[in-house]
Give the backbone structure.
Amino acid sequence: MNIYKKPILFTLLATVTILSGSIAMMIYPMFLESTQPHNKLQQPYTPIELAGRDVYQAEGCNNCHTQTVRPLKAEVARYGPYSKAWEFEYDRPFLWGSKRTGPDLARVGGKYSDKWHYKHMSNPAKLKAGSNMPKYDFLADIELKPAQIEHRMKVLGFPYTKEQIEELEGMTQMDAIVAYLQKLGTAVPRPPRPKMVKEGDVNTLANDPKAIAQGKKIFELNCTGCHGIDLKGDVGADLTDVIWLGSTEDFEDWEIFEVIADGTYKGLKRRAEGGMPPFGDFMGKYKIWSLIAYIRSMEAQE
Amino acid sequence: MATQDLNYDVAKGFAFSALLWGTVTVLLGILIASQLVYPNLNFAPFLTFGRLRPLHINAGAIGFGIGAIFGLFYYITQRLTGQDILFPKLAKAHLWLFNVAVVLAAVSLLIGMNTTKEYAELEWPLDVVVVILWVMFAINILGMIFKRKQMHLYVSLWYIIATIIAVAVLYIINNLAIPVSWNKSYSIFAGVNDANVEWWYGHNAVGFIFTTPILAMFYYFFPKSANLPIYSHRLSIVAFWSLIFAYLWTGAHHLIYTPVPDWIQTVAMAFTIFLIAPSWGSVVNGYYTMGGNWDRMRSNYLIKFFILGITFYGLQTIQGPTQGLRTISALVHYTDWVPGHVHMGTMGWVTMTICASIYYMLPQIYKTEIYSVKLANLHFWLVLIGQLMYSVTMWITGIQQGAMWRATDQDGSLTYTFIETNLANVPFWQLRIIAGIIFLCGFLVFVYNVIMTAQKGRRLAQEVA
């Protein structure tokens, strides 16, 4: 029998051949526990978060941002704990992406303050020198449609309250996308950061001209977005002020170190309103001490 | 075979549509490549990178790729079956609906209708149109094959059949979604499952839009152009069945180090390595068909296109499995290496083979010679230089970026901030813009050459009449 003379039989055989791998690799895994694990830490999206996710999709943010941290040492240091399967239970579709023209966003929730996000979305290059992200200021002009969002919540079967829907009145796509970003990765517990300084440690690099020059470079790359090129502050605190970070007392070197290494969050003793991300993992001791040497040198000029 | 009055109008129509959408694709590519270097070229809300990149991909895959596939398949199938198009009116409607669909798809992506599933960005109303287009196409092509006058099915027809079946299965399953309004839907799959379905689809979209149909063209137009029979029928058989078998197992190599279960990643990697064999089966078949007469690449410009095309296919199918391995993926995944890889396939293998097929087909239809072999040669060198420059720069900067992401200082802290790793891309991104412009020049030479050939053909037809 020559199947190359029997097109119908040939078509059937080709179909079976194509389906075999599809069944083994795509259909069969759908029935496995490991592809749909549940963890109560992961909560469904609230109405405002879902609206933000819709904006994220419409703007094609996934073209430049991934949302999955790989279990690689450098990646965990840069972004945080690697992604778990249960985090994505409510994601229809998944938004892992395939290209990082911008940084991964799987752990961005809570890393920056809302204020930072609003400013950054409106004009990214202003907060991150050299950023090539487009300006999304127009999102602040587009109002949300509460009825539409309620319908979508119903279709997805996510729980919501009437108040949550009413609150959407007058809110914009900008509010929504910030709310969505602030949720990302917050369900995953963060292990406490290892202590990098002891109480009372002093900066051995203080007044070292080489360290100050290095610190200036680090500051310009990482800090000017929030604290300004003149250190006068904007989203972040004024670093030249004596009432720095809401404290009238002077900060000691090791305390500044902790703020830079661990970041700030609301309610942390003596420390402003939070919203500063931790830099310890990707700066290390030498860079942080250099940075402090630079900040101190600028303080001295005032 | 007695001369027959076969119907080539639709084949022509699709070929010219593909030229138009191909030009749009390259122009969009240059624009989004420029936006990465000069963010002021983003014009919100419609012309931002996030909305234009899916448009670039869809214009390329659907407008240029599938448009050319439709046209060339209408031609190849008629030639190989000896059968006239069964439903000429349906085929004509197919051509018109196709072009309307491409325009609607473009508008929908620009207004932010985006499912965000890669290569399946179109929202559900357009998915319905795509399925209708595919059915219209399948009725005529499969109908011709089933009713054929030439009993034996040639290799190209096998690949055509596999393409029609596989794309239908892939497209429908991956796009299953619950509509919440006319312009928005949510995937019926969630999280890890959705990712696994998407990359089963995504990788096989490459397999059954950018591989099997292009092989169908290669197996038909290359021996025709060289006037030589394919080297080995047996090799064709082995390569065909193992290719369409293995492809469907490999999608998860796009998901290395993600929360998708490890065994799925590992099985996918193993089949990916296996896939080198059937891919190279066709490469070897192509090379041996030349029978050592490599000097013909100098005298026959079509052979030059096909041999370079199949060579890029060979390189692509070595590079792909390599970067699918965990160790290599850890370094280059998510970097610009990947666009470098993709564009060797699309700008090298796919475009070269499609262009050469159109160069062969149109003069046949118009019963004339090509307008200018010199221009075809110029086209060849420009697209070759443009594509090599694109891929090589992206590979270099991709490795650089992967290395910078993982670089650590002596105390174990990361050496570079993200923005530093991005700024290091800029010189390479600038070179890529130039590469794109060179490629565009080559493509425009092709378009001009084809249009002039058509005009020449029409003039000749009038003179005869």
Q: What stands out?
A: Chain B touches chain A through 94 residues (CB under 8 Å). The first helix of chain B runs from residue 9 to 37. The first strand of chain B starts at residue 177 and ends at 181.
